[in-house]
Design a protein that fits this description.
homotetramer, 14 strands, 9 helices, alpha+beta, 4-stranded mixed β-sheet
């Protein structure tokens, strides 16, 4: 059974995997690791080498091939860390409906397909296949992590003008993230076929509430990791997701935290996407993130949303990532909270 | 009677005073303005010219001489704005205990006195005098804004080595802010004589919970504005202050907001000081604000704390300022919330 | 007679016009000022308020309406300063062929025309008209300064999608600068009609060797200032122009400086345009200006080219401006050097 | 015989050692490598991880233990690259007086010694010993590379207040670089004993003309590499050094280049140190490098001086490093040019 275990490892520098030992002592079986999801301390933009440093170090530290998503940028109070997601044993003492982890990958996405219906469909088909294989109901999926490809300068230079969705590497990352998120949304029944097309055409109001997508040069297809509840799995982890409607939407997150608290639960990790509102305003007030030529807007957004979420949860080592195309509404973003039932939860049921 | 009125004016650019007309329509008497407290969109550091632009524009727009504190840096969701603090008429229909505003200034602070006991004593004496003059009890003061001088390169160059507290202009701003805050704390009974000296000697655990101090090249003495409750004043504004013990201390601010909410009140403005924890950690987690050579730590801190406070209040046009020496504990900061009684408050009493 | 005089005024801060008095003592007649061309110390990008501060201050200081081009960014050794270009009297003691200044402006450029043939044609027609009016031969023009409009967010929002050349304000500045430069090139016979169209279509190999164009929100048409030699004017100023083929092309500039030196002349001012090579390489070596998400490429380019030109000339208060679309070849830029004949020049002839 | 060979390897990213193969084909014997001196594309400040990435990669690629100095910051036109300095065979066909390389290291520098006379003396003693061992006359040394330790936060925290020269990690790097440079200067007879003490006491007018020092966390003693001429060595490499008196001192470098050119030589590599003039002016003109809170002064300085030196040499892949304490005069820096005799040089003699 693919019951999920999450192990958070603080890191002292980008290549630090020293905390792995502690995670193993806490029960992590490194051979069953499925994904590594980390925050590194670079700028999270083009010349951020900390992501690669961390990915290389963790892939070497973990023998098994794992989906590796390193998100650059620990602005403000955010703290560099890595979460290892692994499979663990079914715990017969715990109630069913536990969190499970399931992964898969699409075939390589051709450059011409990137950012287009083909990529979205490939992601959607893979999400559906993972759900089917693991008997995971779409509505039980609370987090869909996608690592997707981008267009490199070499690829762009080698193609005839106009055949690709963009001739800009940085821009291709946004298109790839967006198409991946829309594929997730379609597979999970969040959006219709028409909405998928509208989203691909640029309608930012079309979004997924559980997708968290990142583009990276090291993959040629889309790698997907799902976290969801399975009635057949027994364990203490659970997840809940919500959507921040804007960058200061404390209410939605507080409500999720209240749900966890009322169950006597303990927050294990929070995964969020954040972005500067593209309209230049938050609750009608002008923000200056998009006009600051000294600090990238994504850095501003991570700092602000990270400050809010760390404040609400009391935990700075959370995952707040930029680049939220079609992940939550414009200026907002999806938030998934993984939590643990209290010790005596099994008995309570 | 010096009953206080606060008028918040969003600005479209640093020199924008166009919103003044709206404030006047809302009841502001520009001839009775006492202070202008704003957030401008520069970097809040050395080469931030937006503070000067805003100060010049507002001083021209308001005929009366006012204490002008422009704080640079609207990182993240923070929104550029100005709050005009003015005197208004006593409102006999309202309950007593209303917020009053009172201002004063010290004699010029000699360069040799800056950052030292002399400056702290001068500030303390002036705070005491203002309180006495306006029959304001120390414990009724909830906000003490100080605009204090700094050491310019010219002044530093003209003095013998070792006679000044520092030979660095930027550093002199921190010393001036710190001494001013300690002076406030001493005058209001927050700290003892020994603690004042310890604070001046570098003990960051000694602090004021209501001081908000800013250094500027345009003053040679310290300008002080107090907001506090007077039993003799009738009006609808009130203030409450708290201290964030660290940059993610949502609890303390939420408690203050709950107090306002339980009284049926409406938040008018929030004034906070923020800083990167000098120990490099928040709740035991490593932060990277102090090691980021691309973005100043003060910018990170404002973005993060601004995101949290905007989230808790729902308002991005709040005052979150950096440079919190002896204003709240290390890594934390004081927060003052000005709020308005509900319409029927008078009747309820 | 519109004989040109150039007065360089170092500035202590963006709004500093204190040096104007010295320039007047040196012979500047402020009533005959035609243009103010300055370097200010902001980041030269979107949120650079120093340009506006300087423009406002100098327009107030000079009664006459002048073409004002403030270029942000004094990276590296570059020094903030302003050059006032004014008309002066014909000096009968000096040889003919002196530098003259002549200005004009186009009709407002409609948003739909910006960046397109219409804008280029309007600039070209105005350049031709100025030349004709002032009997200036195209080949005698050594500097063509253009201040051109941009598309604001409001304008973009108000137009149907697809009617404008771009929906991005920052991008519109590049298009406006490029079309203006191509218009200059066409008027002065540097490029053919077909080349003009190719340039507008994106061919960066089509360029002017004397244009220096800047986009600003404060104009709705294009303001043009030409510096050139007139056989009918007597005076001691001369100009020479060259083109840097890349960002480290010291040779071309040294050659121009040698020409001045061999005539016993003295450099008065240097005007250059600089940019990061869009191909990511300089002389076959990879540069990192375009992948640095912490510092804008334009800042890198000004610092590097400014360092080289200040080194060659021994003068940091020179005009090195970014945004060199169709001004010199890709990665290079035009350079104009204004110089003064030696005292005894008249006698030598 | 320790005849020196220099192999320049352009790199595509910080960990790229792919060019090593080409260097080996060009004659590099990796087993005889003595030093690796590189420029990496990080910010060259505190959070620059590219130096460590490059150092790790090159130390792994080269089996032999080598002195590794990676200098962060390729601002402007500077191009990331590595120079491998190796020993090569004496070439009997070439004239004597060839460039030789010799290395050594001091004992560990205790924290209390760092930045003080003890460190300077240790460096001086080691330089003298290297010279003696390799029969290298002090006046024949043209480049003295020192990799020196710094004070980490842990070390600072563990020592009683006041026992170390500074309680700031970043500041300790400057002290270590300065003491190392002064040690070199003393050993090579550039400065007297009294000048050494004056330099350690802060007199920036005391400096070495050949030292290039870098502080790094990975060493506990000082590693030293000397390049100098030996009458006993035969080969085609030579070196010449000069001092830039300020950041735009093209003349001194041009003179060195002219010397090389007049000998028919070819520049192999240039090593320079650069800094923002601490007085805030270059040739009497105000610069803004020290007041720019968005971009570190060291980045400005490297960009500007790199632009000048790349322009003069026609080569962007040169070594321009920041942090020039006691390396050249304030605002200036030492420059060493390694060059190669023309093919027929032996015959010409």
């Amino acid at each position: 059974m693919n019951v999920a275990a999450l192990h958070r490892v603080p890191v002292d520098h980008p290549a630090d995997t020293g905390g792995l030992l502690g995670a193993i002592k806490d029960g992590l079986d490194p051979d069953r690791a499925v994904a590594v999801i980390g925050k590194t301390e670079g700028n999270g933009c083009v010349n951020d080498f900390t992501r690669g440093m961390a990915a290389t170090a963790w892939q070497a530290a973990l023998a098994a091939p794992v989906v590796t998503v390193m998100s650059g940028g620990t602005e403000g109070v955010l703290s560099p860390h890595v979460v290892v997601v692994a499979e663990t044993d079914d715990d017969a003492d715990q109630p069913p409906g536990a969190l499970v982890v399931a992964a898969g990958r699409t075939a390589p996405v051709a450059p011409e397909e990137l950012g287009r219906r083909e990529q979205a469909d490939a992601v959607a088909a893979t999400v559906r296949r993972i759900c089917r294989t693991h008997q995971l109901a779409p509505e039980d999926v609370h987090f869909a992590l996608v690592k997707c490809p981008l267009l490199t300068s070499d690829v762009i230079a080698a193609r005839p003008t106009g055949t690709l969705i963009t001739a800009d590497t940085y821009d291709s990352m946004a298109h790839s993230r967006g198409a991946s998120a829309l594929g997730v949304a379609h597979a999970l029944g969040e959006i219709s076929d028409a909405e998928l097309d509208a989203g691909l055409a640029g309608d930012r109001r079309v979004f997924s509430s559980v997708a968290s997508t990142s583009a990276g040069v090291e993959v040629d297809g889309c790698e997907i990791v799902l976290l969801g509840h399975s009635p057949r799995a027994r364990g203490r982890l659970r997840a809940i997701h919500t959507v921040m409607v804007d960058a200061i939407d404390a209410r939605s997150v507080q409500k999720a935290l209240d749900t966890i608290a009322s169950a006597g639960g303990r927050l294990v990790q929070l995964f969020a996407k954040a972005e500067a509102d593209p309209a230049g305003r938050v609750r009608g007030r002008r923000h200056t993130m998009l006009t600051d030529s000294d600090v990238q807007a994504t850095r501003h957004a991570r700092a602000a949303v990270g400050g809010l979420l760390a404040g609400l949860t009391g935990e700075p080592a959370i995952y707040v990532s930029g680049g939220a195309e079609h992940q939550g509404p414009p200026g907002g973003g999806p938030v998934t909270l993984v939590w643990e039932l209290p010790d005596g939860a099994a008995q309570m049921r």
